[in-house]
Amino acid sequence: MNAVEYSKTVAVVLSTMAAIALLEAAVPLFVRPKTLPGRLRANLAMTIQTLAFAFVLTSAVAVAALYLPVASPGLMVALGLPALIQIILGIVAIDFAFGYAAHRSMHAHPMLWKYHRVHHSDAFVDVTTTYRTHPVESAWRHLWMFATVWALGVPAAGVVAFRLLSAVNGILEHANVRVPAAIDARIARLWVTPNMHKVHHSRVETETNSNYGNLFTLHDRLLGTFVATDRAFAVEYGLDDVDPAEVRSFGALIAMPWRKRRHGRGVAREIMA
């Protein structure tokens, strides 16, 4: 993907964020707090950084693919799978690696959690939270994605489709939009929904360590990490060991993994009533 093509992708992402922001204003899930000055500016700066860094990572891998004599085993081609099946299975496989496995590993290992907590530290969740991502987390997730693409030989169309679906659904699932519980629950049988992901942003440890999925709920359901989406209406965002007043700037968010933490891992130890 060259710079022109990537700029078009960024335009789609930013346009989607703007459109969903209008929907947030019309049917909000929660009233936006007025006590978080600097949050919006910091989140938007992180968004620009995340999108730019993703292009750098993608470009680096493309260059490496040209010069490193390490050919993909192309397992799906070797199995003789039709092109459409390769694309569909490729999307599911990348979603598991990038969206579930890499994500869950960042919750499981303290060293990785230091970087992922930048995302979870947001005291409010809306479209601007989507790309509040530390560059180390971006690199880790992309490593899993590229390894999967290389091992399976996922066709380019499958990779592009996943990136587009992931970008758009990431914005939707973070949106501060009120979705009727019954409708959300039905969609969540297959697809990751706003309510489902709001549970993942809970301060409660048993809830933040659930609903890891990015596109499909299949991974959470099969691996026992799915929590009912109706909890979204009572969720409390943020981390106990992060003071929102201390992370009101881009620089503070980038430096957060190396700052001294307050007591606790960052999420409550018991389910709130």
Would you give an account of this structure?
With 273 residues, the chain is mainly alpha-helical. It has helices at residues 3-26, 39-67, 75-78, 83-108, 110-120, 135-152, 156-174, 181-187, 194-200, 205-208, 218-222, 250-255. The longest helix is centred in the N-terminal third of the chain and has 29 residues, at 39-67.
Q: How is this fold's topology laid out?
A:
Blueprint: H1 3-26, H2 39-67, H3 75-78, H4 83-108, H5 110-120, H6 135-152, H7 156-174, H8 181-187, H9 194-200, H10 205-208, H11 218-222, H12 250-255
Key structural traits:
single chain; 273 residues; mainly alpha; 12 helices; disordered C terminus
- Give me the number of helical elements: 12
Strand content: under 5%
Q: Look at the structure and give the mean pLDDT.
A: 89
Backbone structural class: mainly alpha
Q: Globular, elongated, flat, extended or rod-shaped: what is the shape?
A: globular
Q: What separation lies between the terminal Cα atoms?
A: 48 Å
The parts where pLDDT drops under 50 for at least 5 residues are 265-273
Following the backbone from N to C, one meets helices and strands in this order, namely HHHHHHHHHHHH
Indicate the percent of residues in helices: 55-70%
The count of β-strands is: 0
Nearest-angstrom radius of gyration?
19 Å
What summary fits the major beta sheet? none
